[in-house]
Amino acid sequence: MPGTAASLFEQELTRRGVPFSFDRETGRYKVQHGGLELFVSLDNLTRNYERDRDSAHITGFVDAVLAAPADRPSWEEARPSILFCLEPSDYQQPPEIRSAISGRVDRVPVYYDEQEGTIAWIAPAQIADWGVTPEEVEAAALGNLAAVLKDAMIEHSDIDGVALGFIRTTLPFKSALILAPNLKEIVAPVLGWPLLAVIPDRDFIFLWAAKHDGFANRVGGTVVKEFSAAPYPLTTEVFEIGDEGIAAIGAFPAEKG
Fold this sequence. Notes:
The chain is of the alpha+beta class. Helices cover 33% and strands 28% of the residues. The chain contains 8 helices and 13 strands. It starts with a helix and ends in a 6-residue tail after the last strand.
């Protein structure tokens, strides 16, 4: 019987003599290669492998990971793939660049290789290599999030007169779309404005009009369940999103695992 994507990934690294470890706090593998410590997520690899059980996904993915240090893209090449990802703020080894969205969640700039399904935190040294400023990286990340949201499908279900919205997109960390600068433009015509949102998982988001503040209790069970079971949990907080920005206004009690 074939192994899991994770076990085959580990076997392939071992076969190539590449040191690695699994960091439970981040849910990522730490791979030592080319003098660098690479943080590797297997989310997309797992999806692709479970679809057809083709071992070529594993070898191709490892090839991409190990090529990263030697084949870093230029700024012009990288700019379309720079976005923000939301990460928990309690990592033992947090990202070098992060800004707080709440007491539990940070905004982190990442390089997302859609073809290979890899997500890499951007570090100050990488920005220096590109010869750009942190402000240019931020502008690129926000612009790319806006482009993703513009191409996404905003769908909703009517639950007792409340439009509960969700976003359909291939981006594997859709929770970050609450940061998109065009969120009001795209979502308000469907759901209203301001909004309330829950993001229990990196790839999970519910949105609804803030005037229905009591509706949070209707989604609380789903939030807690998703947060407790997800491989990459974020937070059980409820966020209000409006013209003044994003703020956590409460949280459901829950523990990971």
